[in-house]
Amino acid sequence: MTIKLTAQQVSMRFKDRVLFHIPDLSIGPNDAIYLRGDNGVGKTTLLKILSGLLKPTTGRVNAPNDNIIQRLFPRSGRRDVVYLHQSPYLFDGTVYENVAYGIRFQKMSAQDKRAKVITALRRVGLETLADEHISVLSGGEKQRVAMARAWILTPSILLMDEPSASLDQESIDRLVTLAKDLLQKGSSIVVTSHQKNALTDLCRKQWWIKDSTLIESPLLQIITEEKQENPYAKSNAN
């Protein structure tokens, strides 16, 4: 089951500076959103608020699967919403252990769990490195491990913070494959990026943090604006 997440009057203030104030927004079900904005406007902060890892200065985020723990401890994370950091947080262990972590309490046999983990690793091209320590992997391979760990949970909403930054083409292609699979299953994704790429090309609408608020536009409208700014830019809208 996929969910719809909504937020009202969300703002974030650092001392005397208001980073942003967003009257309302919604994600899902089955949304694909490209989140744009200059450095420092609050893209990462917004994703952390939506994922339940950061409490906004004002406002409220609502998700149907929020439980009493999330309400009492608002930085505990949000069920069915996964935040994928640009520099992934990985555990001191093997590649297999990192991917298996998210399903450790799921009710299935050890054999089925292993099959699920190996399938995830095969999708990102790392099944032969399952027993290697995470420290031997390159940056792109670590991002693939983090994506496999997110994919295996089949989150309703996946928030991807600059996922393709400094990645090689193979790693980007692997991330795109898993993102497409989640969208086909009805999940929603939000992707931040400083420029269009294969992941943002999956998106059907765009959010733009500008002038301390959030502007929501159809994909075609943003492409038109970009072409007006740069008439030689090529569009991938079709």
From TrEMBL:
<keyword id="KW-0067">ATP-binding</keyword>
<dbReference type="Pfam" id="PF00005">
    <property type="entry name" value="ABC_tran"/>
</dbReference>
<dbReference type="InterPro" id="IPR017871">
    <property type="entry name" value="ABC_transporter-like_CS"/>
</dbReference>
<dbReference type="InterPro" id="IPR050153">
    <property type="entry name" value="Metal_Ion_Import_ABC"/>
</dbReference>
<feature type="domain" description="ABC transporter">
    <location>
        <begin position="5"/>
        <end position="236"/>
    </location>
</feature>
<protein>
    <submittedName>
        <fullName>ABC transporter ATP-binding protein</fullName>
    </submittedName>
</protein>
<dbReference type="GO" id="GO:0016020">
    <property type="term" value="C:membrane"/>
</dbReference>
<dbReference type="InterPro" id="IPR003439">
    <property type="entry name" value="ABC_transporter-like_ATP-bd"/>
</dbReference>
<dbReference type="InterPro" id="IPR015856">
    <property type="entry name" value="ABC_transpr_CbiO/EcfA_su"/>
</dbReference>
<dbReference type="GO" id="GO:0016887">
    <property type="term" value="F:ATP hydrolysis activity"/>
</dbReference>
<comment type="similarity">
    <text>Belongs to the ABC transporter superfamily.</text>
</comment>
<dbReference type="InterPro" id="IPR027417">
    <property type="entry name" value="P-loop_NTPase"/>
</dbReference>
<dbReference type="GO" id="GO:0005524">
    <property type="term" value="F:ATP binding"/>
</dbReference>
<keyword id="KW-0813">Transport</keyword>
<dbReference type="GO" id="GO:0055085">
    <property type="term" value="P:transmembrane transport"/>
</dbReference>
<keyword id="KW-0547">Nucleotide-binding</keyword>
<dbReference type="InterPro" id="IPR003593">
    <property type="entry name" value="AAA+_ATPase"/>
</dbReference>
